[in-house]
Amino acid sequence: MAKNTISKGSKLKTILLSLCIAIIVAVILILALIYGLRYYTEHGQEVVVPHVTNLYLEEAKIIASSEGLHIEVIDSTYSTKTPLGTIVEQNPMAGAKAKHGRTIYVIQNARYRRPVVLPELRDLSLRQAETTVRVLGLQIEKIIYEPSIYKNIILDIRQGETPIVGGTRLEEGSSITLVVGKGKGTKQVTIPSLTGKSLEEARSWLLANSLSLGSVEYDTEPTYEDKDQYVVYQQIPESGTIVVEGTSVNIKLSLDGEKAIHTISQETSEEDFF
Question: What gap in Å lies between CA 238 and CA 259, rounded to an integer?
Fold first, then answer.
C-alpha cells in the first residue's frame, strides 16, 4: 500500500514538472511571437528621410541612425561651394518616404584639395588664360592692368603679392592674380638696369617700372636643371633710356657670370665718365 502511494506521488510530481516546462515553453514562444511581430511591423514602417546634404559624414550618420536609416558613400567629388568633407548630394532626397532600415546613398566632397600644376600662362591672351584657370579648378582673385606694348596679354601671374611661374603646384580652388597688358601709356619712365638679374627678377623689375619683357635669348641652350641659374648680361634698350610706359625690353642671358660683371663695369665706367 505504501509503494502505491509513493508511485502515485512520483507520477504527480512528473506531471507537474512537465506542466511547468510546457508553460515556460509556451511563454517563451508567445514572447518570441510578440517581438517578432513587432520587428516585422517596424521593418516595413516608413520614415521621412532627413536632410544630410552640407553635413559632415559623421553628423549625417548620427541623424540617419536616429531615424533607423543608414548612410553609405558611393562617390566623392570636389566642390568649392561646400566645405571639404561634407555631403554634396543624397539619394533618396530629404523629405522622401523610406522603409525603416533603408540606406541613404551620398556623394561626399573631398576631404583634401587635390594639387594641380599651373601651366605657363604668360604671353597667352586673357581669354585663353581665364579658360585654362577655370578648367583647372583655380580662381582668379583679380586682374591688374599694366602698361604693355600688347593689349590683353598675360604679363605675369601672382599669388597674393608673390609672382609664380608655370609648373608651380597649387591646391585646387586656390586664387591667383593675373597681370594683363593694357597697351602703351603716355607717361615717360626710365629703364632700370637688369644686368646680373635672373629672368624672373628681370620680369618683376620691368613690371614694377611699368615696362614689359620682350624677347628672351640665351647664349647657350638652357636645360631644365640650370635654367634658373642664367643671368642677364645684355638688354635693349639699355638702362637709363627714357621711354613711354609699356615699352618692351629685350634681354640676353648667360650662365657665365663674367659677362654680367663685364657689363656692369662698362655701365659704371660710362656713369663715371658722364
Answer: 15
